[in-house]
Design a protein that fits this description.
about 5% strand; three-stranded antiparallel sheet; 18 helices; mainly alpha; binds carboxymethyl coenzyme *A
């Protein structure tokens, strides 16, 4: 029997259905609430609002669980490649060998970008943040590939998806090369997705890029860990913008813009900047912890805390191990890693962080992994964006295919002035 919740308003009892997810989470379906009672619900920041039913990613913030299509992220990080995880997210199941080969070939086929797009890069002012460039370039992709209609057939959607997945990686590497005044390196058919990206970033006519399996593995893991995170801010932006039935490029461009902020995907850059500042100040952590705990100070310990995880972020645990592994392999030391570990140790024993359930999130250690493989600081959020792309695409696709699809349009409680008359300018005092 369907479970119900009862709501009493002014003495009248209303019954609302309870929806139960496949992992037992429950939600009160309030979609008929306004019609029946005249009331809406108020939930600033949507902290307790389910915006959709989704079968892509499961998270349990209390237990620190993250699964894509049912598979724990730890297993994917250990055994999978990024492209295989992308396939899993978008298609719902792991590919067979043949399906994976076909998908990889499709990504290779679409990896070049129109030469005219280079002119855009060349005309951005020096110092433009690559996230701003990426967001507008992804939007611009539609101008170069206009044959894709807004309401698309399956095959056309697959082509657009392949284009996005492949070209975003090429655009990201191009933006880096051009910003440094270096010649663009084109994608290579003989290289797999992650190795191809590293080659486009770092190959040089005077010093060919030398692949290291552990570095390629680290990038695969980095992107797998970022690949989806259910209804986070940028994914919610993609779904919301996409709900107006705009083309996929525009919806993804909105997701990149949302991801840019330091509370979201910009946090990986902000963490390394914070650790660098601590290092530059002699490594004393206490002033930073004091500031983070001060209610009157806007400073926050970057890379700590999460809207959903109230325990250790499972991605952070893997990323921390990855830092040690890559640095050991490259026979390097990074003083910022020592600072990060010390900071974590102290914060996790501090009553403020314990009471607020603040633990390291994915961004706390990810920047150190990126630094170790040579990614420049301002490209960190772009790396997050490339990783999150399959998540955005699968969530967009799911929302597109949802028979109960609706335009996203929240309501509000108006708190402004009551009705009043227009006053001509000469009568305003
Ligand atoms: N340092 C110090 N205090 C914090 C922090 C932090 N990093 N995060 C939250 N708090 C405190 C906050 O001041 C508030 O305290 P009080 O209740 O005493 O006023 C309380 O914890 C709740 O904070 P909130 O901002 O209401 O909680 P939220 O769920 O909206 O915050 C967050 C989530 C990620 C925005 C926040 O934890 C934060 O700003 N963290 C730093 C930025 C960061 O690392 N972002 C990356 C998130 S993970 C990657 C991703 O998925 O985007």
């Amino acid at each position: 029997m369907e479970k119900i919740a009862k709501l009493i308003v002014d003495g009248t009892t209303y019954e609302l259905p309870i929806v139960t997810g496949s992992e037992g989470e429950k939600a009160i379906d309030i979609s008929s609430l306004r019609e029946e009672t005249g009331l809406i619900t108020l939930d600033p920041g949507f902290a307790n609002t389910g915006s959709c039913q989704s079968s892509i990613t499961f998270m349990d913030g209390e237990k620190g669980i993250l699964r894509y299509r049912g598979i724990p992220v730890e297993q994917l990080a250990e055994h999978s490649r990024f492209v295989e995880t992308v396939y899993l997210l978008i298609n719902g199941d792991l590919p067979t060998g043949e399906e994976l080969d076909r998908f990889s070939a499709l990504l290779n086929d679409h990896s070049l970008v129109h030469e005219d797009m280079r002119a855009f890069f060349e005309n951005y002012p020096r110092g433009t943040h690559p996230m701003g460039i990426l967001s507008s370039m992804v939007n611009a992709l539609r101008a170069f590939y206009p044959e894709i209609p807004e309401r698309t057939e399956e095959e056309e959607i697959n082509k657009t998806v392949a284009r996005l997945l492949s070209k975003v990686r090429t655009l990201a590497a191009m933006s880096y090369r051009i910003s440094r005044g270096h010649k663009v390196v084109y994608p290579r058919h003989d290289l797999l997705y992650c190795a191809n990206f590293l080659n486009m970033m770092f190959d040089s006519p005077v010093k060919p890029y030398v692949f290291d399996d552990d570095v390629v593995k680290a990038l695969n893991v980095f992107w797998i860990l970022h690949a989806d995170h259910e209804q986070n801010s940028s994914t919610a932006a993609v779904r919301l913008v996409g709900s107006s039935r705009v083309n996929l490029y525009a919806a993804i461009s909105a997701g990149i813009a949302a991801l840019w902020g330091p509370l979201h995907g910009g946090a990986n850059q902000a963490v390394v900047e914070m650790l660098q500042e601590i290092y530059n100040c002699g490594g004393d952590l206490s002033p930073f912890l004091t500031k983070a705990k001060d209610k009157n100070d806007p400073f926050r310990l970057m890379g700590f805390g999460h809207r959903v995880y109230k325990t250790y972020d499972p991605r952070a645990r893997i990323m921390k191990r990855m830092c040690d592994k890559v640095l050991k392999k490259l026979k390097r030391k990074d003083p910022l890693l020592d600072i990060a570990k010390k900071l974590e140790e102290i914060a996790l024993k501090d009553p403020y962080f314990i009471e607020h359930h603040l633990y390291p999130n994915v961004d706390f250690y990810s920047g150190i992994v990126l630094r170790s493989i040579g990614i420049p600081l301002n490209m960190f959020p772009v790396m997050f964006a490339i990783g999150r792309l399959p998540g955005w695409i699968s969530q967009w696709k799911e929302s597109h295919e949802d028979p109960n699809w609706k335009l996203h349009r929240p309501r509000q409680v108006y708190t402004g002035r009551k009705e009043r008359d227009y006053v001509p300018i000469e009568k305003r005092g």
